[in-house]
Specification:
With 67 residues, this protein is mostly helical. It is built from 2 helices and no strands. It is rod-shaped, with a radius of gyration of 18 Å.
Length: 67
């Protein structure tokens, strides 16, 4: 009789760890962008920061779809 639990493959664990690290970095970048946007009243800067936040959200959603 074989083992009841199969250990995850090392490649899969590395992939999951990499995806988690990318997601964490994107979350940190999003928070930084939000803080930067709160510190300025300049319309153009705020619009650029909002665009950055949208792109970070898109990238984070793509990472979540991969996992």
């Amino acid at each position: 009789m074989g083992p009841a639990y199969k250990m995850p493959e090392p490649a899969r664990r590395r992939r999951e760890a990499t995806l988690a690290e990318i997601n964490n970095a994107l979350c940190g970048a999003r928070c930084s962008a939000e803080l930067a946007g709160m510190e300025t009243g300049d319309f153009v800067v705020r619009e650029l920061v909002l665009t950055v936040i949208q792109q970070i959200d898109r990238a984070a959603a793509a990472v979540r779809r991969l996992s």
